[in-house]
Amino acid sequence: MNPLTNVWTKNQVGQPPGNHGRMGLWLNTRKMISAAFVPDRWQRRQIKGWAPYMLAIPDGSQLFTVGAQQTVEVTASCPVNFAAVGFAIKSFGPCVIELYDVNSDQALINASGPAIQISNLGGNGKFPFFLKRMYCMDLGNTLIATITDLSGSQNSGQIVLYGYEPLFPGVIETAPKQQVSPVWPAALT
Amino acid sequence: MKQTTSPTMPCVKCNASGKNPRTGGTCPVCGGSGNMDSEFPFPYNYPFNMTILQGAYQATVNLSIPGSPGNPSQNPAANGQFGTNPVVLKLGNEGAFKWIFRMIHATSPDVVGDASRFLQLALTDLSGGTWPFQNAPIFADLVAGSAQLPFPEIEPLTFGTNTQLQLFGYSVNYQGITLEFGLGTGALLTFTTTLSAPILRGSLVIYENNAGVITNVATDDGQGTISGTGYAGTVNYLTGAVSVTGTPANTVIVGANYTQGCARIDSQFLMQGYYLRPYSAAEQAQIAQS
Asked: How many CB pairs under 8 A join A and B?
């Protein structure tokens, strides 16, 4: 195909780039999308070249486990500088959740109101839930999730933050034209 | 928020700032076009074929699923019957690979349909050290989607040539589940119940509860047969249906203790993206003529 007319390559040969960036941006159910459903490109350019990273809560085990009608508190300490772009959840039963960011001393769910149903917090691999703006965390930042089971039996699951971390050694010198010195978007925190 | 500064972005060649994204203008530092001017992307797929076998079933080839993905290049020692765990994959050396989508396909002989909810994955880059993509193993159905509903990278990652990736798989088991489903009368009785499927092969224990005194009386053999002291029966690992026949004493409760999980999971984690191939001479000529 002619690189001048191929939508994937025309940006490389002198034409003004399109709204969706060089290779496009997709959501699975919306295909090429607008910034209404993900961080816009002014945000995304600050994580350009960063590596995907997923922050699981809890970080010390495979799953959280909470007994019937019980409450458990689980944590995750961020091992990298991290820009979260979405939430995903896995729960094998009904439960509610509160989420708290220790370093910024900020509740991420209305602290003075009821906890939210865990299924309202995030999506999954097929239907990911992305944030409109990135949420940035420094290395060592701790998130606390307080989970209360609503069923009559033991419940298990996992909370995952999709995101990106600064460039890692795998995208190394051998990668042609790969940027090598990303800038942490401090202004966005 | 309104953009108040001139729209600039890092040059994809040298990462210097100052390139105007609207015009694709010249990078003020490297002097190049600031564009990926010599590469033509074409779709490419990197699959990781993985098989997880638990406990006594690590050598039980007859648990295989017809049509399950073979992976001879990654696991020649196993005659290509199934993938390994972990899987180490080395990317090609002809050009960079831009990772766009993630897909997962996971099946198990003990699960109807998608088995990815019993599988956790951990992906690590082994190039230049060990660099994980997550802080803990994450459920496969949170990590990736399907071809119909793929998980998109918000900001695609470009891997260099010869990058080595390692994918670890972890089965998810829910241990210590109990259900009491029968009451003895002193006569020969057959008890039936349905446990939470899938039942991990070899984990089922039938017990008697005599006023709080628990006595294990039978176990399953991993092939669907329950046998033990005074008890016999069958178990369907796929549906959780259990049928046991025995003669518990009057008022003795009959129950089951088991682990929910899969003895075997076959999966394929797929990195879909674009291989950045240099322009051919013909393509370069087309560009030059424009």
From this structure: 207
Fold (topology level) of A48-166? Jelly Rolls (2.60.120)
Contact B135 A39 (CB under 8 A): no
Specify the amino acid at residue B90.
K
Q: Which residue of B has its CA nearest to A38?
A: B154
DSSP type of residue B117: G
Over A4-54, what HEC string results?
CCCCCCHHHHCCCCCCCCCCCCEECCCEECCCCCCCCHHHHHHHCCCEEEE
DSSP conformation class of A93: S
Please judge whether A174 and B274 are an interchain contact, meaning their C-beta atoms are less than 8 angstroms apart.
no
Q: Which of A121-125, A142-146, B19-23 comes out lowest in average pLDDT?
A: B19-23
pTM beyond 0.80, yes or no: no
Judged against a pLDDT cut of 60, whether residue B52 lies above it is answered with yes
* Cβ <8 Å between A171 and B100: no
pLDDT in tens, B253-282: 999 999 898 888 889 999 998 887 767 777
Has residue B70 got a pLDDT over 50? Answer: no
B24 to A14: CB separation less than 8 angstroms, yes or no? yes
Coil, helix or strand at residue B259: strand
B290–A13 CB contact, under 8 Å: yes
Q: Where in chain B is the domain with CATH 2.60.40.10?
A: 175-260
Q: How many residues does chain B have?
A: 290
Nearest Cβ partner for A13 among B155, B172, B287: B287
For position A12, what pLDDT does the model report? 59
**A40, A124, A180: best mutation site toward chain B, by most B Cβ within 10 Å?**
A124
Chain B residues within an 8 Å CB radius of A30: none
A39 chain-B contacts, CB cut-off 8 A: 154
The CATH homologous superfamily of the domain defined by B175-260: Immunoglobulins (2.60.40.10)
Average pLDDT rounded to a whole number, residues A152-181: 66
* B159 CB neighbour count, 10 Å cutoff: 26
Of A44, A55, A62, the CB nearest to B155: A44
Amino acid at B226: I
- List the single residue in B127, B143, B170 with the smallest CB-CB distance to A62: B170
Q: How confident is the model at residue B124 (pLDDT cuts 50, 70, 90)?
A: confident
Helix (H/G/I), strand (E/B), else coil: B31: coil
Q: Tell me: the pLDDT tens digits for A55-96?
A: 999 987 778 999 999 999 999 998 888 899 999 999 988 999
Indicate the CATH number for domain B39-172+264-278.
2.60.120
The ipTM (two decimal places) reads 0.80
